[in-house]
Design brief:
Layout (H helix, E strand, L loop, with lengths): L1 E6 L4 E8 L7 E9 L6 H19 L3 E5 L7 H21 L2 E5 L1 H9 L6 H11 L9 H16 L11 H40 L9
Parallel strand pairs: 1-4, 4-5
Antiparallel strand pairs: 1-2, 2-3
Helix pairs in contact: 1-2, 3-5, 4-5
Cofactor: Mg(2+)
Catalytic activity: Endonucleolytic cleavage at a junction such as a reciprocal single-stranded crossover between two homologous DNA duplexes (Holliday junction)
Subcellular location: Cytoplasm
Length: 215
């Protein structure tokens, strides 16, 4: 089982791929962080995150995607950017037919450290031990992404069957189906609209015309 963990954010979005099975040794496949300039427009920053996540999906071909569940905090402006960024991997997983796991921070910490209130240093330390890494993953966003992937393997697993075709093939198939389905759906909507218009005209024609009386 291969899982892409995503620690969402606009300034820094952590990405980590872990491979393994529950009860067995896990292996880190890849880890990194997507950074976007604070001064850029939000849509440009989101596009940068999306482009990088799509590339990771194509390169590493995970069986599932795990994303940290976003909770409202005091910094509403900051949480808005995090929520927007979290939608990108969720949509990508749906588009590719991959299993999606949403895990709370306390679930992730408990799965990795045994303590739902562990701090970032403890999470990084345990991720390093679990994956038997020579050096701790930096920055903390990268370690959090790996922790997400570990949590998903241990807590949720996957309902999909690995090896049923590459992620790239699934992207192409999804795009092909979308292109072929769109015209058919549009034609169906037009047909429904015409039928409704004809029915409305028929009802109006059958309705008796009121007679005006002169007083």
């Amino acid at each position: 089982m291969r899982v892409l963990g995503v620690d969402p954010g606009l300034t820094r979005c952590g990405l980590g791929v872990v491979e393994g099975l529950p009860g067995r040794r896990l292996r880190m496949v890849a880890v990194g962080v997507v950074r976007t300039p604070v001064g850029d427009e939000p849509q440009e920053r989101l596009l940068s995150v999306q482009t990088e996540i799509d590339q990771w999906l194509a390169d590493w071909q995970p069986d599932a995607v795990a994303v940290e569940r976003v909770f409202a905090k005091a910094n509403i402006r900051g949480i808005m950017g995090t929520a927007q960024a979290s939608a990108i991997p969720m949509l990508a997983a749906a588009r590719l037919g991959l299993q999606l796991g949403l895990h709370t921070p306390s679930e992730i910490k408990a799965a990795v450290t045994g303590n739902g209130r562990a701090d970032k240093a403890q999470v990084t330390h345990m991720v390093t031990r679990i994956l038997q890494l020579a050096d701790p993953p930096r920055p903390a966003d990268a370690a959090d992404a790996l922790a997400l992937a570990i949590c998903h393997v241990w807590r949720a697993g996957t309902d999909g069957r690995p090896g049923e075709g590459s992620t790239t093939n699934r992207i192409h198939e999804a795009e092909r189906l979308a292109r072929s389905a769109a015209p058919n759906r549009l034609a169906e909507l037009h047909s429904q609209h015409r039928s409704a218009a004809r029915a409305a005209t028929a009802r109006a024609s059958a309705r008796p015309v009121p007679t005006r009386r002169n007083v």
